[in-house]
Specification:
Blueprint lengths: L2 H11 L2 E8 L2 E8 L1 E2 L6 E7 L3 H8 L2 E6 L7 E11 L4 H11 L3 H8 L3 E14 L6 E4 L1
Antiparallel strand pairs: 1-2, 1-5, 3-4, 4-7, 5-6, 6-7, 7-8
């Protein structure tokens, strides 16, 4: 198994991740849409309303964990060694990636785009599960 290629494929095929934060030892998990640019390995992007409660959590603790939600089967990528921060990219700069991957996202941008900020999940290490064989690991 080429672990890096499998990771890229899973990131391209999966539309959502379960993103976990923790503030003062209280964990919180939510499902978010995400995009991945293979030209910028080790970074996932998602957009959120800047007033959303999760954004305040990022300011208190930028360490996050996530797992992709499989599009089909069991193949997924997970990491507990990642951080999140507001991206230097705007939703306008990233909209082509979001619109290409997430059905109807053009309508979301049209409706609430002015309230959306782009965030980056920076991955230090990820575990890649492609089936029943031994999981692979990718470091960035």
């Amino acid at each position: 198994m080429d672990t890096q290629q499998t990771l890229n494929t899973i990131f391209q095929e999966s539309k959502t991740i379960a993103l976990a934060t923790s503030v003062e030892n209280f964990p919180n998990v939510r499902i978010v849409n995400f995009v991945y640019d293979p030209g910028n390995p080790g970074v996932l992007y998602f957009a959120s309303d800047r007033e959303n409660a999760k954004v305040a959590e990022f300011g208190k603790n930028d360490r996050v964990a996530f797992t992709t939600v499989p599009a089909a089967g069991i193949a997924h990528v997970r990491s507990q060694n990642a951080t999140v921060r507001k991206s230097a990219f705007s939703i306008e700069e990233m909209q082509s990636l979001f619109i290409a991957k997430i059905p109807g996202y053009d309508e979301t941008i049209a409706a609430i785009g002015e309230t959306l900020d782009v965030f980056e999940i920076r991955i230090n290490e990820a575990t890649v599960i492609s089936g029943f064989e031994e999981p692979g690991r990718v470091s960035f």
